[in-house]
Amino acid sequence: MELGLIGLGRMGASMAQRLIGGGHRVVAYDRSPEAVRAARQTGVVGAGSLQELVSLLRGPRTVWVMVPAGDPTEQTIRDLAELLQPGDLVVDGGNSNFRDSVRRGGGLEKRGILFADAGTSGGVWGLEKGYCLMVGGSNEAFKRIEPALKTLAPEGGYANVGPCGAGHFAKMVHNGIEYGMLEAYAEGFEILRASPYNFDLRQLAALWNRGSVVRSWLLELAEMAFARDPDLSSIRGYVEDSGEGRWTVFEAIDEDVPAPAIALSLFARFASRQEESFAMKVIAALRKEFGGHPVRTS
Question: What is the pLDDT of residues 74-92, one digit of tens each?
Fold first, then answer.
């Protein structure tokens, strides 16, 4: 299929390459001319503006937005609404708040423009392994983008999870769970490190991934991180949060759902910004491994 892609950051650029590899035609735009030039080397058709991107696509157009949540996404979708035609489709693949997605979808619908919110997980490994895609929107919108979803995701790695907003709600809770899992691993490794035994943390991470009930991809990444830097001495235990954990806690409160593990894992990140913590170093290292998130060096 043919689609436009806005945003060529860590995720967007890799998604473009995977789509090109799957035989799709991708027209891409990014505020950085350097990013567009680099994408052209992989077979992407580069555009110098949103207007040019829209003009290079045949109708009905599909435009996938991969820019930071908040104002950048808001402005991009607002601008696209003025450029697109009835029957075109906008996909928001960023980490937007699901309430914003519902609102944006309603606004585009009044113009006859379709909208889908695609919660996207896979980080910097998505190019090689594929992305998990949680799509919210109408069946018409889902069917329109399904050829791209088949290319982007591994087998069984995409689904229409509900109406507009459901994709980003699912991704929000996914990331809330991620917060809790990262915190549990981090606390465990800190207890091991503080014990009277001189544990090889890389060895234990590898061992636990062979048949234990806590085996996971995150432990594979922990093994890799400890292999490079056994004490994580080059990483500060400073951990950001990108919003989804907070939103998950807010929704839990609104729905009267007890979520102590996720809530405390969020608060632990706040603590990481006040003093050095080995547990926070573990989380910072793992976030760098799976998502390419920057770390603060010692």
Answer: 999 999 999 999 999 999 9
Choose the catalytic residue: 171, 183, 223, 281: 171
Interatomic CA distance for residues 93 and 165, integer angstroms: 12
- In the residue annotation, 171 being an active-site residue is answered as yes
Write down the catalytic residue from 74, 178, 220, 240.
Answer: 178
CB 252 within 8 A of CB 263: yes
Cα 265 from Cα 183, distance rounded (Å)? 6
Structure tokens at 6: 């806005």
> Three-state SS string across 231-277, please?
CCCCECCCCCCCCHHHHHHHHHHHCCCCCHHHHHHHHHHHHHCCCCC
Q: Which residue has the tokens 């926070």?
A: 280
Reported residue count of the chain is 298
Residue whose token pair is 């990013």: 35
Nearest to 148 by CA among 41, 56, 16, 44: 16
Q: What is the DSSP letter of 196?
A: S
Q: CA-to-CA distance for 29 and 210, rounded, in angstroms?
A: 43
Q: Distance between CA atoms of 2 and 57, rounded to whole angstroms?
A: 7
Low-confidence ranges of the chain (pLDDT < 50): none
Bridge partners of 162, per DSSP, are 136
